Every structure is written in C-alpha cells, then in structure tokens.
Amino acid sequence: MYDNRTRRIDPKTVQDILSPHLALYRKKLPTYQATMLDSMSSIWTGPHSRLLDIGGGTGVIAEAISRLFSVREVHSVDVVDRFCRGLSVTTSQFDGTTLPFEDKSFDAATLNNVMHHVPLAVRTSLLRDVRRVVKGPLYIKDHERRSGADDLRLQALDAIGNIPFSGMVWARYLGRAEWEQLASSSGYRIARRAAPARYRSGAYAMLFPNRLEITMRLDPL
After folding, report:
1. β-pairing, 108-112 with 90-93?
2. Of the residues 5, 13, 174, 188, which has the maximum number of CB atoms within 10 A of its CB?
3. CA 129 distance to own-chain centroid
4. What is the rounded end-to-end Cα distance, in angstroms, of the chain?
5. Helix (H, G, I), strand (E, B) or coil at 1
6. Sign of CA dihedral 129, 79, 21, 198
7. What is the Cα–Cα distance from 198 to 95, expressed in whole angstroms?
8. What percentage of the chain reaches a pLDDT higher than 90?
9. Average pLDDT estimate for 22-44
C-alpha cells in the first residue's frame, strides 16, 4: 500500500498495474498517470473505506487507486461501458447526472480529467449529486485555463490523450475563479491544491505548460 509520507509513486509500479489491461503500457511507461496519482497522493486524507471514481473510462486509474492508496473498496462509473475486463474494482454505468447510489454510500470520490468533458449545464447538478452520495472529500484532477491560447493547448492534449482510447474529445475548460464558483455552488470548498507537478519537460513543457494541470481536494461545506 502506498504511503505518501515516505515515497513517491513510480511509473514502473503504475505500468505493472496498467499493462495487463492496456497493451499500450507494456512498452510505454505511464509517466503522466504516475504523476497524476502522485499529485493526488499529496492531498489525500485517507484511509477511505469506500471510494467512488466518477467518469472512470477504461477503469485502469480506479484500479491503480485501489492498489496504491489507503482505500478498501473502489467503485468506478461512467456513461459508457468501455471498462477493461479483468479489473478488480466494481464498475457500472450511469446517466451522467444522477448517481445510482443511496445517500452517503461512499467515503470519498475522484474525478480524474473528467469535469472538462461534462456539459456546462449539468456540472453543478452532478457535483451536488456527488455531495449527496459521498460523505467526505472529492479529489479532482483536471485543467485550468488562463486564456484562449490555453484552450487550444488543452484541446490538443485531450485529442492526444483520448482518441487512442475512444475517449471524449469535446471539452470546456475552467479558470481559477470558475472552479471556485463551481465548488461553492455545489456544496464544496476547495480545501487544498496540490503543488505544481512535472508532467512534461523540455520543449513539450514549453508547448504545453505544466501549470495547465491541477489537482484539488474539495471538502464538503
């Protein structure tokens, strides 16, 4: 079990978890995913008994969380069933707005690179429903824009990252003030932001600055 007080999450460790489910990672190190998980670990307040992963996609990040973090059970949901087979986590579909669980069913939740794909009109209602079924914190990994140029950068990153896995490409990104407003209107406060992480280096980082990547913990009001 990962202990964020003593060591960092290594890409090779994440590769060992992802590669049995996605052939791409049998040769490619998942450095982005490892950085994302490591960033989340820095603001983690677990242990959490039951965790809900919303918009889980293939389900492999939920699988990694279940293996690396202090959590007993992980349930991943998405609007489309493209979950990998053979996962140890529980998976199911939902309608994108209303989570099919009773009140306070989970201790924490995660949204990993999901919220920018959720239609603007339903973002608040979705987070309010997360607040209904989750007793504790909501961990969000997403993006933060400062300008129209950032929108173009992020659209390119989404295309690079999602098309190979048949993921969603449409997106609408938020600035810092918009994130604050979304949190407060949904019954949360942004309790902590992770320190900037090094997702990219060299020319790639100049083209796609690491400041575009954010990780936050939202605590219920």
Report:
1. unpaired
2. 188
3. 17
4. 30
5. coil
6. negative
7. 34
8. 88
9. 96
